[in-house]
Amino acid sequence: MPEWRPQRMVTRRLGTWEPTAAHQRAIVLGAAGAIVAVIGRRADLLVIVAPLVVAALWGHLARPRSEVTGTARLGDTTFREGSVTGVRVTIEPSPPEVHGIVTLAQAPWVERKPSSGVVELEDGAATLGVRSTRWGRRRVGTVGIALVSTWGAFRVGPVDLPDLASATLPVPAAFDASAPTPHPRGIVGLNRSNRPGSGSEFNTIRRFHPGDRLRRIHWPVSMRTGTLHVTSTFTDEDAHVFLLVDCFSDLGPREGIDGHPTSLDVTVRAAGAISEHFLRSNDRLTLRTVGAAEVPTLGVGSGTNHLRRVLDTLAAISPATENRDTGDRAIRGVDPNALCLVLSPLIDPTMVGLAHTLAARGMTVVVVDTFPDHLVTDTTDVYQSLAWRMRLLSRDSEVHALRLRGVPVVPWRGPGSLDQVLRDIARRASAPRMARR
Amino acid sequence: MPEPQPQPQPQPQSPPQATRAKPVRVRRTVHFGAGPEWSLSQVGATLAATGGVAVFLASLFLSTGGFDAIWWALVLLPLVTMTWAGSAAPLAYWGLLLFGWFILTPAGSFSWWSLPAAAGCVVGHAATALSASAPPAGSFAAPTARRWVRHTAIAFAAAVPVAVLAGLLAGRSLGLVPAAYVIGLGGVAVGLWMVRTSPPVGRP
Fold first, then answer.
1. CA Rg, chain B, in Å?
2. Interchain CB contacts (distance < 8 Å): A and B
3. ipTM metric
4. What does CATH list as the number for A1-17+65-169?
């Protein structure tokens, strides 16, 4: 499969001008009418066809002689769900008095503005609006161009330009967490550690040591004691967050950004929101997917650029394209101190097994349940309700097994979803524990 | 993986000025049953073609003093064939209409009603050609419509001197009938030579 890359601008020659049915009609009616009028001595018939003769000659003499090139340019190749960009179509050269029509074919998850996808060229240029309603990588409809000359006598096209391609990034759901990330280890983050050092969290006031910064001197205590004292702080550190995204199933009707989300919509948007939160806190983040083919491997990173890479990777997910994926490759080489967040609707048993495996390695694992509630609230179909009820009973037993192992399972609720569980993990980490010797 | 550059946010350099909002043009479309979407511009073009046929038939009616009522059914042809504006259907029904003029009017006669008939014919031809230049849901901007109206009026103007000349010569025997044949047919031949396709269009 060739590597995907966005296609921002496409160009194609529109071909040669060819006579239309209207031109042939004017010629045939004009010529035949004139002949019949002369032979049949019908002067009034000659009057009637005279404008058609003029139209035929005019259309022929005013026909464009140059070959036209059409160009379509996409305003943005990467944009968010629900956002609008433009497709600018131009022709070069732009013959005078040429009537041009641009069409944009319908494509899944792309809304056209105007909705018919048909606009008229004005001075050789036209602009169509495009709104992407779901995350993912896709083609933005096929752009077609048709030009007709004066009197509609000659025509070029409709010619389809090569497809424009764009990536729609998921709109991260709202998310915030006030609880600290467990196991901070790095040097650039915002999480308070237990080690004294340069940071913002107050530790104590102590005697001045060579190497201390002068701005740390605490003058009231220094004046009172007669010796220099400084304010010492705890060092700020960054943590490593490991996101494991379940791409095995996409449950529910796909309605895009304007409708109810599918399970994968919830998963992807939650992954985006969690990534955005931790990366803005200067934490390091790793994203792995299970069950999706052709998803590029993303390394550890932090910062805004890494957030863009994470969202690009999420946009590349195609659900259930690698059903034989056991997930072993995804959890290989994970930092043992990382906070493992498993985002899954917990329908496929592989993800439950992976959460068990990570927990068995002694890692801090939290399962974020992304099963959308609206899937089971529809009671109109009795059989479907019954099927869901049976499936959810089985799912409850799997969730119970995870909890018995000490893996918390929290439903995705947006802001504050992870607060309580992260505080519990921090408290558990500082509590005395029994160790096997 | 390509890494998109962050878009710079535009900074306001000056206090916001009162700007005149460009009026939003609402493009209305209609559906006929389960058929495709039709723009009002396309419907208007079809109605203009229908009007052209109606004017032609009315002129023929007044020129001949009456004809069978079944001929009025031809008014509906542009409506029925609006989907095939870019096909040979308009050629067929306009050929039928001109044939009707030929058989219903006596040889050697001239009627000034041929002038409005010529107007109806050229309006019908232009409206059908304009309709064929865009898909059913496509609209025409006002400058486009004005340009087509201007071209149609200029083409119709050619019928006036022909009608005046025919009116002056009607009923007179100038003894130039063979020469008129030669001149007329020669003009047709020259016209066909001019509109020939060069080089000829190859068949696919």
1. 25
2. 209
3. 0.77
4. 2.60.40.10
